[in-house]
Amino acid sequence: MENKNIMLVCAAGMSTSMLVGKMQNFSKETARHHQIFALSSSEADSYIKESTVDVILLGPQVRFMLDDFKKKVAGLDIPVDVIPMSDYGMMNGENVLMLAEKLMK
Q1: C-alpha distances in angstroms, 97 versus 7, 49, 80?
Q2: Catalytic residue positions, numbered
Q3: Which of the residues bear the PTM Phosphocysteine (predicted)?
């Protein structure tokens, strides 16, 4: 899979930074080299309008925003889903990256 832009969204943009690091490590170890980053929900709105995003994953703490994000990206062909609580809690970067890639296929 070619390099993709994977955006994680959380309440303040900080709680997912450790997960982003785990995902980046797995991405490099497996020669994927995706661009993976985290933003707060308010930052995500403007980023989507100005930049290329291939998939959006919401942290469990903002799962209530799923329908809103799906509406925001309607027509843009950007899949949106919620990171499973078990993977988020265990900081399982491999599983979360695999979820992102599955959504982008």
Answers
A1: 11, 23, 13
A2: 10
A3: 10
Residue-wise pLDDT for 38-83, tens only, equals 999 889 989 998 999 999 999 999 999 999 999 999 989 999 999 9
Distances (CA, A) of 70 to 3, 7, 36, 73, 77: 23, 14, 20, 5, 10
Q: What is the pLDDT of residues 10-33, one digit of tens each?
A: 987 667 889 999 999 999 999 998
Stated pTM of the model: 0.94
